[in-house]
């Protein structure tokens, strides 16, 4: 059928062979639907897992005390600080004249030279070390207060011998003195002239808070009546000024210092290098 501009318009029914029908879109396949649902479930599971991990990390790492607080809440109170409890126990037992029980071997007992070495080593090892005020200077000091090793160990006596040897090798000249004392200044000036290596270890008693305990303790261990007290190789060779001047003038004191391991003029030679 031919159409022209002069042909009259006719309805679409006469032109088209049949009614126009639009084909509906095909429904989603069951496979695609299940895939979308499984992905949503999987994402939710991953989010939930990450949330659980984050909360666990916070309570276990960032805020570890939370679990401990829950554990002790409603139960007995936390025990006191162990260090404070130990110090209180030492103080109470020493004040009442009791010795602490030794759970391992027999109690370690130091003789006078060993006690002098232990106290000197304790004071020389750290400037802030001091003898506790509750110590009775007229009695042997508790070794556990001044020794770093286990005094109940089977090797305790051997470690004491090593300690005695080491302290006097490292401190061949040890001077207990007073800063505000003419006698002490005389001894210090003479030692300074020797330029000893290692340099003398000097403890000024009148600058220490434990002088009331330490001074009588040293008098008991050395037999001296006053300060200064000079130890050479662990031996109290100077206990008064008359003794010091006699040994100095005879040259014996310098000889004994050299025999103890100190090098006369050694400090000056080190400075030149």
TrEMBL record:
The chain crosses the membrane at residues 46-66. Keywords: Membrane, Transmembrane, Transmembrane helix. One of its GO terms (cellular component) is fungal-type vacuole. InterPro entries: Thioredoxin-like_sf. One of its GO terms (molecular function) is glutathione disulfide oxidoreductase activity. GO terms for biological process: cellular response to oxidative stress. Gene3D superfamilies: Glutaredoxin. The keyword NADP does not apply. PROSITE patterns: GLUTAREDOXIN_2. This is Uncharacterized protein. It comes from Schizophyllum commune (strain H4-8 / FGSC 9210) (Split gill fungus).
